[in-house]
Amino acid sequence: MSSTNEEFNLSGSEALKSVFRNHASGIAIITGRDSAGNPIGFTASSVTSLGSNPPLVSFNIAQGSSSYPHMTKGSKLAIHTLDSQTLHLAQRLAGDRSKRFDGTESNGPFDVPVFEACPAILIGEVRERFEVESNAVVVIDVLLASSHEVPAAPLLYFQRGYHTAGDRLADNS
Amino acid sequence: MSSTNEEFNLSGSEALKSVFRNHASGIAIITGRDSAGNPIGFTASSVTSLGSNPPLVSFNIAQGSSSYPHMTKGSKLAIHTLDSQTLHLAQRLAGDRSKRFDGTESNGPFDVPVFEACPAILIGEVRERFEVESNAVVVIDVLLASSHEVPAAPLLYFQRGYHTAGDRLADNS
User: Which of B9, B30, B50 is the mutation pick for testing A, counting most A CBs within 10 A?
Assistant: First the structure.
């Protein structure tokens, strides 16, 4: 074994950014309602499974996000997975807050706003929030899902842009 | 707005699996050492940023994982991002535990075992663990990184297989 310490020349937030620039994330949009019943939503790159028994999902969010105050314990949310055909939704829900909902959304279970064009929609409930510095990990209990059987190409984010998935390299044996 | 409740015909863990089957994740390998100094490591699909100031990363792990007892507060870890050229490392670190390290690894900072073939390696320290049911969210303080400037295709996981990234669809404007 050799020693390679000299190559570790990045530190702190520069280290984080350099590494994550090339780390791909699946893209989702998350929607819900504020206390007045208005739709809220945003594009998220941190949605991931946290176990299947019971079924749990987590995502990370800045506490300063306009959506965060409405993600209290028991709040119902919709997590939509996206594909190359729904790129426009990723862009819209990452853009001007006043233009994220335009009436093309539907009312899903628990009156949560949903975008039916997405390949899969998961309905969940906020179980717990873990606050760390100015951010938070939000843990969701999975309740319901609507999943189309279309074999669409998932939407990804890396190198400051949206990508579609490419070639299959290997099965998980 | 229409109402679409009738399409939400999946619940519980079936709902989770159906949605996440088509949600792509970037693939990383995480390495460290147990209390006896032996290398430990595993393949992870949940590595994500948790804010840049201070720089934090999170990942999810089962508490029953053989690596979990060694991820105590202050433990040093290496998080490697992978590309299509390092698929074999994703496979090896997801396989037989006795064959995950074969001497091709190097000693990185803090004596953490690292695989230099990976496009980027982040060194961090366990800050906090949030246990939820039989799983946990592990929060890492980012310390150092070694990042190659190769524009490699990130390695992804979805539909029970490894994939490479495909076409760039749009910049993040």
Answer: B50
Query: What is the SS3 assignment for B126?
Result: strand
Average pLDDT, 10 consecutive residues per value, chain A (173 residues)? 72 94 94 96 97 97 96 97 95 95 94 95 98 98 88 88 93 81
Per DSSP, A31 falls in state E
Of B105, B147, B163, the CB nearest to A169: B163
**B-contacting residues in A 23-42 (Cβ below 8 Å):** 23-26, 28
ipTM over 0.85: yes
Q: Which residues make Cβ contacts (< 8 Å) with residue B93, sequence separation at least 6?
A: B29, B31, B41, B42, B43, B100
Paired strand residues for B44: B28
Which tens digits make up the pLDDT trace of B119-138?
Answer: 999 999 999 999 999 999 99
